[in-house]
Design brief:
Helix 2 links the parallel strand 2 and strand 3. Helix content is 36%, strand content 23%. The two termini are 33 Å apart. By secondary structure, it is an alpha/beta fold. It has two domains: 106 residues, Spore Coat Polysaccharide Biosynthesis Protein SpsA, Chain A, CATH 3.90.550; 139 residues, no CATH class. It contains nine helices and nine strands.
């Protein structure tokens, strides 16, 4: 099975190299690697170019935001399976792609595979974002599976569309809502750490970002014609707190 790994970045000189190395060290070699840079003005491009002979496609140009960059990567992708690995994330170990392909082959009717994400700060584990207990109805309470550790067949993007560009933080939630709740895409959960994510990203680092995320999650329900209210969506916050405590 062919896999397309897509990394989007902007001024990521402090983290991009570990991301690239975690991809290139994978023992499963039947993949292409696509990097979409939003026009970095720091040393990011120079770091990427160190590995250009091992990268399938590099695009560096201004975009309208993270979801625009992700969509560009998906449009360039040739793989049957899409993996989105951001520039402050890395694969948990060298066997991740092997394990993902094995899981897809074991149950060939699934179109989406969801693993666990480990959130760290300065090499210390802060939160284990686990998928093992996820149920689709949980999305009604603003809870979605970990986006970085989700592997989706490209035919699903072809069927239901890409990420919406009018979201700044919760575009992945809206896509999950559309894919899992509305379209009932068949998925499988694997209790396996797939991605190590640096804590402090756009959706996690401040009260303001959590407020924006909450508003955009509510918006995603309205756009998909599913009734919801802010009280239900805010119930996701205690769940996040429990994940920090139970790490």
């Amino acid at each position: 099975m062919d896999i397309s790994v897509i990394t989007v970045c902007l001024n990521s000189e402090s983290t991009i190299e570990k991301t690239i190395q975690s991809v290139l060290k994978q023992n499963y070699k039947n993949f292409e690697y696509i990097i979409i840079d939003g026009g970095s003005t720091d040393n990011t491009i120079n770091i990427i170019n160190k590995y250009k002979s091992q990268i399938s496609k590099i695009i560096s140009e201004k975009d309208t935001g993270i979801y625009d960059a992700i969509n560009k990567g998906i449009n360039f992708a040739n793989g049957e399976i899409i993996s989105i690995l951001h520039s402050d994330d890395k694969f948990f170990d060298d066997e991740i792609l092997n394990n993902i392909v094995k899981s897809f082959k074991e149950e060939n009717t699934i179109d989406c595979l969801i693993g666990n994400t480990i959130m760290v700060k300065r090499n210390k584990i802060l939160r284990k974002y686990s998928s093992k207990n996820f149920k689709t109805w949980m999305m009604y309470f603003g809870i979605s599976p970990p986006h970085p550790s989700t592997f989706i067949k490209k035919k699903i993007y072809d069927k239901i569309g890409l990420y919406k560009l009018d979201y700044s933080i919760a575009g992945d939630f809206e896509f999950f809502l559309r894919m899992l709740y509305v379209e009932n895409t068949k998925f499988k959960l694997i209790d396996l750490p797939c991605v190590e994510m640096e804590y402090g990203g756009k959706s996690t680092h401040s009260f303001k970002s959590n407020l924006i995320s909450t508003k955009e999650i509510f918006k995603s329900f309205k756009e998909n014609k599913i009734y919801n209210n802010y009280f239900f969506i805010l119930l996701r916050l205690p769940v996040k707190l429990i994940q920090f405590i139970m790490k």
